[in-house]
Amino acid sequence: MCSLTCNTLKESEQNLMKAEKILEELQESKLDVSEVVQLEVELITTQGRLYVQQGKATQAVLLLERSLKLMQSLVSTDGAQIIEAHRWLVRAHQLCSNHEAAIEISLQAKAIAGSSFGPGSTKVAQVIHTIGQAYTCTGNTEHEGLAEQNLLESLSMYKQAGLAESSRALAVLDDLCHLHVHMKKYQEAFERLRSSMGMKREVFGECSEKVAETFHLMGAIRMAQGELPSAYRLMKKCLDIQSILYGPQHKKTKATKETLDTLSRCPGVVAKRNAPKADPSRRHLSAAVEKQKPPK
């Protein structure tokens, strides 16, 4: 998985170098100025995104800010393109821990989305999700209420649009659950995660990373609540999927295995695992005897 990401980033860098050479040639050609600027915008934006993925936050901020200025100089810039550039700039500022700037830019994106697509559009829902993330990332308890409010609003908008089972809506739900865990709203987070499991299996697959992560978070919640046998069962389900996805030597699989080993030594879990299991044949026999009894 990591090598695949590294290869993708390397290919992106190579493609960008080729694109830069092409852009230099185009700037010397007789193409319309706006066409050249549009190509430059696409190139700079792509480079900025690449820097975000590489964790080069300062370079990303500079390029994405330049990209936005160029977009604003164009008469026919696509609203969706501007919004997406804002969202990447938010991520870049978060990498720099410039949380106030990230919040301000995400709020600007909301205004643009509302005027371009209408207040009830999924584009607005997407930006409101970004605002919720921006407030969450501050780590400030005073921002938790605003983060929760925006994430709930985004989730509600996706539901109203009939997209409650979309990958974007499920991403909002996961962020909301992580926030609720941080706020110690354990049961609320657990119920939301449990209700999302069927949708995630449908959207991402039975043995997917998202399903494994959901089992892991549910297990962590049960640990925080002191319900260790339940935590053990959930972590075991997570481990089963991770073993298939990543193999036994992957760091995620190893970490879950360590948690499971620790849980397995807890008295409550030991007692539950060692408890005699009911014999299915005896259950069927008891049911048959009950049916044979004459009515009272």
Task: Explain the overall architecture.
- Residues 271-296 are annotated as: Disordered.
- With 296 residues, this protein is mainly alpha-helical.
- It has two domains: 14-22 and 29-139 and 146-157, Alpha Horseshoe (Serine Threonine Protein Phosphatase 5, Tetratricopeptide repeat); 180-269, Alpha Horseshoe (Serine Threonine Protein Phosphatase 5, Tetratricopeptide repeat), CATH 1.25.40.
- It is 80% helix and 0% strand.
- The chain contains 14 helices and no strands.
- It has helices at 2-27, 33-54, 57-73, 79-95, 99-117, 122-137, 144-160, 167-182, 186-204, 209-224, 228-245, 251-264, 267-274, 280-292.
- The protein is elongated.
- It starts with a helix and ends with a helix.
- 30% of the residues are buried.
- Residues 1-8 have low confidence and may be disordered.
Write the layout of secondary structure elements.
Blueprint: H1 2-27, H2 33-54, H3 57-73, H4 79-95, H5 99-117, H6 122-137, H7 144-160, H8 167-182, H9 186-204, H10 209-224, H11 228-245, H12 251-264, H13 267-274, H14 280-292
Helix pairs in contact: 1-2, 2-3, 2-4, 3-4, 4-5, 4-6, 5-6, 6-7, 6-8, 7-8, 8-9, 9-10, 10-11, 11-12
